[in-house]
Amino acid sequence: MEEVDILAGQSRMPEFLARNSSGAVPVLELDDGSCLSESVAICRYLEGLQPEPNLLGRDLREQAEIERWNRRMELELFAPISRTFQNTIRSFKSVLSSFKNMAGRSERSFISVSNEWITN
Questions:
Q1: What share of the chain is helix, strand, coil (3-state, %, to 5)?
Q2: CA 102/CA 22 separation, integer angstroms
Q3: CA 60 to CA 11: how far, in whole Å?
Q4: Measured between alpha carbons, how far apart are the two ends of the chain, in Å?
Q5: Cis peptide before 14 (omega within 30 of 0)
Q6: In the CATH scheme, what is the code of domain 1-56?
Q7: Residue 30: half-sphere exposure toward Cβ, Cα within 13 Å
Q8: pLDDT tens, residue order, the chain (120 aa)
């Protein structure tokens, strides 16, 4: 486990962006050196490796309930907390200024992933 200080800008450093071009956490580095990002994708991967105890639902109903609660947390909890940080923490302004680079990073991520899918 490695901590990444996002407020200090560690997630925007070249060595981190090489792991996840979006500069977001969490990132799971696999044994082969490749990386997975996004918490739900990481959970799906981990559950595939170790199905028990069950993490994402045993049947469609459980899976739907888990997805519902994930979305609720994203929209009703994380989004308001994000807005609070953006509007109250002075050091967050430097993070916001980096968002204008996000479109370019997103495009590079898409191209990178597309190339990987095409070549594999």
A1: 60, 5, 30
A2: 7
A3: 36
A4: 29
A5: no
A6: 3.40.30.10
A7: 10
A8: 889 998 888 999 999 999 998 888 999 999 999 999 999 999 999 999 999 999 999 999 999 999 999 999 988 888 888 888 777 777 666 666 666 666 566 666 666 555 555 554
Q: What are phi and psi of 88, to 5 degrees?
A: -125, -25
CA distances to 15, 84, 103, 114 from 99, rounded to whole Å, are 18, 17, 8, 23
| pTM for the whole structure | 0.64
Q: Which two tokens stand for residue 76?
A: 């009703």
Q: Which amino acid is at 23?
A: G
Q: Report DSSP state, residue 19.
A: T
Q: Where are the domains of the chain?
A: 1-56, 57-102
Distance of alpha carbon 51 from alpha carbon 57, whole angstroms: 10
Tell the residue number behind the tokens 């609660």, with chain if given. 69
Contact 19, 29 (CB under 8 A): yes
Query: 59: phi > 0 → left, psi -120 to 50 → alpha, else beta; which?
Result: beta
